[in-house]
Amino acid sequence: MRGATAIRETELDFGGKNVYSKARRIRQPKVKLPKDIYPNRRLKMDGLKLLAKLPEKSVPAAFLDPQYRSILDKMGYGNEGKTRGKARCALEQMDAETISQFVRSIARVLIPTGHLFLWMDKFEVLNGFHAWMEDTELEIVDMVSWDKARMGMGYRTRRTTEYCVILQKKPKRAKGVWKIHNIPDTWREKAPAGKHPHRKPVELQAKLIEAVTNEGDLVLDPCAGSFSVLEACRRQGRNFVGCDLNG
Question: pTM for this one?
Answer without folding.
Answer: 0.86
